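BUG-346 | component: ligand-complex export | severity: low

The export step for guanosine-5'-monophosphate jobs runs without errors, but we want the raw record kept on the ticket for reference. Input record follows.
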Amino acid sequence: MQDINSFKKLLEEPKRIVIVPHVNPDADALGSSLGMASVLKKKGHEVTVISPTDYPSFLHWMKGNDEVIVYNQGNEQKADKIIEETDIIFCLDFCSLNRTDKMEQPLRQAKATKVLIDHHHGKEDFADFEYWDNKSAATCELIYQLVVDMGERQLLDKHTAEALYAGIMTDTGSFRHPNTTKHVHEVVAALIGLGADVSKVSKLVYDNNSLNRLKFIGFALSERLEVLTEFNTAYFAISADDLSNFSSRTGDTEGLVNYALSIGGITMAAIIIERDDAVKLSFRSVGDFAVNELAAKHFEGGGHKNAAGGISRIGMKETVDKFLNLLPEYKKQLHTNQKKQEIYLT
Ligand code: 5GP
Ligand code: MN
């Protein structure tokens, strides 16, 4: 934060505050939103969390979940009014307003003071206060640090610690990705000190599958996973019919792309999913191969070097073809990166 003192001053008197995570919020977006909401409520503010869309049921355990307004579930008018009248808007786990889907315009028009807390690349210049670090593993890590910087550590409780832990756990791939720093472990140690039950959180997030979801994963692995050794790439293409055949719910495809990345010799993994309104793409990579650049250049997207996403509006088959046709352009990089990884591993 450029000026922590004026930020603290902003929050001195009770205010109306809206907190917004990105569209299709994950554990980091929702955990940071609900964690921040709890701290701000304890400081006496009136806080409303408005999510652009709904999110997986394995996040519903977080304290404050019941009060979240889901914008696109018929709450547009009510939410627009709250946004218009609020004093402060916190934007969490995203850094460009188009990541809020249909909320983009109301947020742009809002007179409120805007606070951005995030760790993604490609920051748009819209906020009055920024707590932004793209070297941070998770927005939840930043929230912990910000609350400490504000001198309000005493406002963190066990529930907040568990929500923040969930975001850090998932954004680091359970402390396996290269973003797992000493600072990450220090923050997590502090969260455990605050009472976070890490085993409970891990079970709630990862061991909450429906049988349908497991069968869907089995189907996707056996029928929809394609490996292109020539390009060190593996991908899934999941149609709308595939999703409906397994009665797929929000979040059921989460994490699937990591199976593709776990294949030895793979530099880039992708999952291409036919959703109602558009085709959604998720990318993962190892090493130097920057999937956020690929996503930004070709699929209106972005994210991190090794985990990014994007969107396509040209139909499913056309999107898969577009993706496949891009690969020759990246062939050398995909291959060189793999070589580096091998050298590193030996
Ligand atoms: P996921 O593949 O898990 O949805 O997202 C991976 C990362 O890329 C996350 O950090 C997410 O915020 C970012 N991301 C996913 N989809 C998009 C997108 O459409 N646009 C941008 N800018 N970032 C995205
Ligand atoms: Mn995040």
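Assignee comment: Attached the raw record above. The longest helix spans residues 316-345.
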